[in-house]
Design a protein that fits this description.
This protein has 549 residues and is an alpha/beta fold. Helices cover 49% and strands 13% of the residues. It contains 21 helices and 16 strands. The strands form four sheets. Strands 3, 4, 8, 9, 10, 13, 14, 15 and 16 form a nine-stranded mixed sheet that branches. α3 packs across α5, α5 (78-104) runs antiparallel to α6 (108-134) and α16 (358-370) crosses α17 (372-395). It is elongated.
Amino acid sequence: PPHLCAEKKGGWGVSEPRADSPSSRPGSVRDVAENPFAHKIRDALLALSIANLCFISAWAPLLYSGSQGYYNKLRVAPVTLLALVANLAWLSLAVWVILRASRRSHSRWLALLSLFVFLASLALPLDYCRLYVVGIRGDHIVAALKKPLVASLVVAVCGIGLWQYRLAVLVSQFLATILSPLALLNLARVAFLCLGIQHLSPAGPDPVLPAPCPVKAGAPRVAWIIFDEADQRIAFEERPAQLRLPEFDRLSRESLFATNAFPPAGSTLVSMPALISGRPISAAALKDSCELNVTLAESGTVTGWSKLPSVFSAAHELGVNTALVGWYHPYNRILGSALNFCSFYPFPRYDLARAPTFGKAMAGQVLCCLYKRYYYQSRFETLCRDSLADSVSLVTNNLYGLLLLHLAPPHHPGVYNPKTGQYTIAFMNVATGYFNNFALADRFLGTLRQAMDTSGQSTNTWLLVSADHFWRETDLYDHRHSFRVPFLLKGPGADQPMTYSPRFNTLLTHDLILAILRKEITNQPSASEWLDAHRSAFSVPTTYVHQVE
């Protein structure tokens, strides 16, 4: 009869035996294992495990970042760790209350709601593993789903999951419970860190930069602007119809415009140390929060980047004050002794869970887990705004004779809408975001040039605009690579436009800047002659040349 076969619904729609069934009689094994206190403990561990998995984007970079502290500016302070514990506590309590309520209630709607919350929470750790463990970007998933076979397989898996949702819930609960020791391990690590029993790799103290020296009258000045991931082909030769770059076009009509400039490497990690040191570097690896190990291509020797001479140390020997605004690399910790001013912005991807106060840390950790993409875009937007403000203050200050402005756009994520001229965190695919950020880079260039003109600094400043590497994600656009970067050099005074077509490695930038500071180059024609005489010193990477040809 139906009343003998009826089952009571447990948490998340999983069936539990009737109270009068043989397995629930007093003294049975089921009674010992399923007593109310055991239920509460089991649910508490499950809730803590779910909360821990939901906050994986916060605790993974905080507790186990290792040398990833290289990309951070703020240290992992106790206030940040306590904020993490507070977030784990409130979410665990919330999940436990929902779970207990669903077990007591016979409401199917509450069971379905709790089931939805549970399955949705599992999406957070899966998304983290997708991006940081497996390395699959959202655009790649969208491209794969457009294939009929993949789409059919996804639909079939989802259908089976809905059909056997109780089994799926049981398996998910079991896996989450199995991972509960990880939550306890994280809490123990937080306790050890706060008590000083364990220590994270320290970010190191901010170096004290040397004071500027008096400015020499009539000395030339160089403003070196690196737009991260700017691509020569996209900027000038095969520009998309919707992309407008009036400032880049204006500069190309006024300067020495190189059309075959190749960067020393295809990533910021390798290219920026090579450009600044003027040495060919074949590889780079993080050593700790204050050092980058680089492999010199000429000898295969591995050394610290901070131990290499740089264009800034050479400029100091000439009596030139130096300044840098940049992101990604901790320039102040590596090049501090050769800089008179440095404004470093961390890579937001690794800095989302850190904040100077308890409240901001709690809010940031919630946002980086629930709204990672939008929070990342928001932090990237702040980076762009603040770095531009710092750059304007430098280009208008004649105290510094050599400036490096390593600016983030057009690097992803897209944060600009050229139609409105405003920043935005609205979703845009990789190609659209890149083109929009290129328009932002053009706006940056116009703002900086106008500031220099207004302050009168254009009369003695050489402007060099280039990039650290080409656009690496053209497979998401047109599957074509040119491996070249913009290279525009404009001297002070009257315009002397000229196109320079021979191939060369932008490693020459180091020596070119020093030749300008030593007054060996006095105008753009002499810069062209200098490039002709020195471009054979560093060969263009053969990989680029072969693929272009």
